[in-house]
Write a structure and sequence with these properties.
By secondary structure, the protein is of the alpha+beta class. It has 17 helices and 19 strands. An 8-stranded antiparallel β-sheet has the order 8-9-10-11-19-16-15-14, covered by helices on one side. Strands 7, 12, 13, 17 and 18 form a 5-stranded antiparallel β-sheet that branches.
Length: about 575
C-alpha cells in the first residue's frame, strides 16, 4: 500500500467509530462523560469538529470522504439558533472558538465539500455564527490563530468580515517570536509541541491560503532543530502538555510540503512523518469502541489536562494534512528516506533544552520551561530528562516513592520520606554546549542549582544544595516496563534495572547514596503501564552539599552492558553553563 492510500485509510479508520455517537440532529458527537473545564455543548462540538482536521485534507485531495452527510447536517443545525442542537454563541476565551477554527479550516481547504451543498439560508447562518467569534477575546497564546483560521474559511467562501481583526491577531502573534525558528506559546516560558503543531502549523496554513511568505522562512529554520526531537524509529520525545494529541507531534512535517517549504529533502520530510505514524500503529490508544482515548501510550485519564474532553484526542488528525496535496506532488513521488545522521548533542537555548541521541533514541534534558496552572505541570515540563524510549511518569498519589514515581527527578522530603517535593519552576535558566542549568527552591529555605549535561548514552546530573532543614533525598533514573520481566541490581552508589524494553540505571559519582528499585504504582508512566524505577536515596543534614550522578538509558543489549561498566567521569562542580 502506498503512503497516500495508507494515510487516507487511517483517516477513515479513525472517523468510522464516531458515526454511532452523532446526535439526532448531527450537530453533537457524544463520546462519553465530559470532565473538562468547558461545558458539555462545547465538548460535543469539539468531538464533531476535530475530525475535520483529517477529513478536510482528504476532501481537498479528492479522496472519498465517509459519512459526509453527518457533518453537513451538523453544520446546518449546530449554527442555527432555532435548532435544539445549536452550539451557542461563543464568549470570550470560549472553547467554541477553538473548534470553530477547525470548521474555518475545512471551509478554506474544501468548500465544495462543506459549504456548497448547504442551502442559502444555512450558509448565512453558518457564516453569521463563525463571524461572531472574530471579535472575542482569546487566550493570549496560540489561540490568536483561531480567529485567523476562521477568517481564512470565510475568505474562501466569499463572506465579508472585518479584516482588521486578523491584522491585530497577527500583530500580537509577532510578539511571541523569539528568533532562530522559535516561538513561545504566549508571553510564557513554554516552548513545547505547541510551537510545531500550532504556531508553525497555522502560520504555514496562512501562507498557503493567502499566497504569502510571512511564516515560511521561520518554519524552514525550525525544521533544523525539530528533527532532533525524533528517534530513528519515529518516536517523538513525550514532553509538555496536550500529549493526548499523540501523532499531531508530526503535523509540522505535513505542513511543510503543503506550503512548499523545502527545508529538507522531501524524502527526508516524508520519512519523519511516516515513521512517526507507523510508530503509533498497533499501540493501544483506543478504547473498546475503537474511539481514541485520553492518554499517550495507552488510555490514561490521569494524563488529561483540565481542558481535555472525550473528543480532544482527535486533534491528532492534523498529521494528515498532506492528503490535500495532488498525487504528483514531490512529497508523494519522493522515495521515503531513513532518518539522516545527526550530531549526538543539540543545544536549543530558546526551548531551554539539550537533546542527545544514542542508539537511535533521544533524551531531552530540560531546564527552563514550566506550567504551574496545568495538572501535573511539574512532571510534564520540569523533570530533568524525557526519553523517547522510557517516556516519563506522573504521580499516582502523595505518599512515598511508589506513589510518587519520581523518575528523572530529585525528590526531597522533610518528614522522613512520607511526602516529597520536586523541581516545579526552574529559575535563572541557562543552556549552552551540552549543559542545561537552573535554580529551584522547593522550600523558601532550600535552594538547589542543578546542572544537566549530555554524555551519550549517559547524562550527568550535579546538584548544589543549600538547606536549612534536614532532608531525605530520592533521585530516580528512567522507569522501565516490567511486564516482560525485569532484572535489578542495587548497592552502595548504584541502582540498575534491565528489561526487554531497555536498560536504565544510576551511578552515584560520590558514592554516598544507596541504590534501590521502586515498583511504581500502575498507570503512572506515559508509555508503560507497570514500571520499575532505579533510585538513589540518601539523607542530608542542614548545610551545603553537592550530589552528582550519571544516568544511563539505553536499549537492552551488549552496548548497554559495556556502557554500564564505563560511566563518564565526575563533572566539574559549578562549572559549565
Amino acid at each position: 500500500m502506498d503512503a497516500r492510500t495508507e494515510m487516507a485509510s487511517r483517516v477513515r479508520e479513525l472517523a468510522a467509530p464516531l458515526v454511532p455517537h452523532f446526535s439526532a440532529g448531527r450537530a453533537r458527537v457524544r463520546l462519553g462523560v465530559n470532565t473538562a473545564i468547558h461545558d458539555d455543548t462545547a465538548a460535543e462540538l469539539e468531538a464533531f469538529a476535530r475530525p475535520l482536521w483529517g477529513l478536510a485534507p482528504l476532501a481537498a485531495g479528492k479522496g472519498a470522504v465517509p459519512h459526509t452527510e453527518l457533518w453537513l447536517r451538523g453544520l446546518a443545525h449546530g449554527s442555527d439558533p432555532a435548532h435544539p442542537e445549536y452550539w451557542g454563541e461563543p464568549r470570550d476565551r470560549d472553547q467554541r472558538i477553538v473548534e470553530m477554527a477547525a470548521i474555518g479550516f475545512a471551509l478554506a481547504l474544501a468548500p465544495e465539500q462543506w459549504w456548497d451543498p448547504l442551502s442559502g439560508a444555512e450558509r448565512d447562518r453558518l457564516a453569521r455564527w463563525l463571524r461572531s467569534a472574530l471579535p472575542r477575546e482569546t487566550a493570549d497564546n496560540n489561540w490568536h490563530f483561531f480567529p485567523v483560521l476562521i477568517g481564512l474559511g470565510l475568505d474562501r467562501v466569499g463572506v465579508p468580515y472585518d479584516r482588521s481583526l486578523t491584522g491585530a491577531r497577527l500583530k500580537r502573534l509577532e510578539t511571541f517570536w523569539l528568533g532562530d525558528g522559535w516561538y513561545s506559546d504566549g508571553p510564557t516560558e513554554r516552548r513545547d509541541y505547541y510551537v510545531p503543531w500550532a504556531m508553525h502549523f497555522y502560520g504555514l496554513l496562512y501562507d498557503t491560503l493567502t499566497g504569502g511568505d510571512r511564516f515560511k522562512e521561520r518554519a524552514a529554520r525550525f525544521a533544523l532543530d525539530f528533527r532532533h526531537w525524533f528517534a530513528d524509529d519515529g518516536a517523538a520525545v513525550p514532553y509538555g502538555r496536550s500529549l493526548t494529541y499523540r501523532w499531531a507531534q508530526a503535523a509540522f512535517w505535513g505542513a511543510l510540503p503543503l506550503a512548499g517549504v523545502d527545508a529538507l529533502p522531501w524524502g527526508v520530510v516524508k520519512g519523519y512523518l511516516l515513521r512517526h505514524l507507523r510508530w503509533w500503529r498497533g499501540r493501544p490508544v483506543t478504547g473498546p469502541e475503537r474511539l481514541l482515548s485520553v492518554g499517550y501510550g495507552y488510555p490514561q485519564p490521569a494524563l488529561a489536562e483540565q481542558y481535555n474532553a472525550p473528543g480532544s484526542p482527535y486533534w491528532s488528525l492534523k498529521a494528515f494534512l498532506p492528503l490535500a496535496l495532488p498525487d504528483d506532488h514531490a512529497f508523494w513521488t519522493a522515495a521515503e528516506e531513513p532518518a539522516p545522521a545527526l550530531p549526538a548533542v543539540s543545544a536549543q537555548p530558546h526551548a531551554g533544552v539539550v537533546l542527545m541521541r544514542a542508539s537511535g533514541d533521544v533524551t531531552l534534558l530540560a531546564g527552563r520551561q514550566h506550567h504551574a496552572w496545568l495538572r501535573h505541570g511539574a512532571e510534564k515540563y520540569a523533570k530533568f530528562a524525557y526519553s523517547s524510549r522510557f517516556g516519563f511518569s506522573l504521580p499516582g498519589g502523595p505518599l512515598g516513592l511508589a506513589q510518587g514515581a519520581y523518575d528523572s527527578m530529585l525528590a526531597l522530603s522533610d518528614d522522613g520520606g512520607a511526602h516529597y517535593r520536586v523541581r516545579e519552576e526552574p529559575a535563572d535558566p541557562a543552556t549552552g554546549g551540552d549543559t542545561v542549568r537552573s535554580t529551584w527552591r522547593p522550600w523558601p529555605d532550600v535552594e538547589i542549582t542543578t546542572w544537566l549535561a549530555a554524555a551519550p548514552p549517559w547524562h550527568l546530573r550535579t546538584h548544589h544544595i543549600r538547606t536549612a532543614r534536614a532532608l531525605h533525598t530520592a533521585e530516580g533514573g528512567f522507569a522501565v516496563d516490567r511486564d516482560a520481566g525485569v532484572k535489578s541490581a542495587t548497592g552502595t552508589g548504584y541502582a540498575r534495572a534491565s528489561a526487554p524494553a531497555g536498560v536504565t540505571g544510576l551511578r552515584d559519582l560520590d558514592g554516598l547514596r544507596s541504590g534501590t528499585v521502586v515498583d511504581c504504582l500502575p498507570g503512572t508512566n506515559v508509555l508503560a503501564r507497570r514500571t520499575t524505577l532505579p533510585t538513589l536515596t540518601g539523607q542530608l543534614p542542614p548545610g551545603e552539599h553537592w550530589l552528582s550522578c550519571a544516568v544511563l538509558g539505553a536499549p537492552d543489549g551488549r552496548d548497554a552492558e559495556a556502557a554500564w561498566r564505563q560511566p563518564p567521569e565526575h563533572p566539574t562542580r559549578g562549572g559549565g553553563t
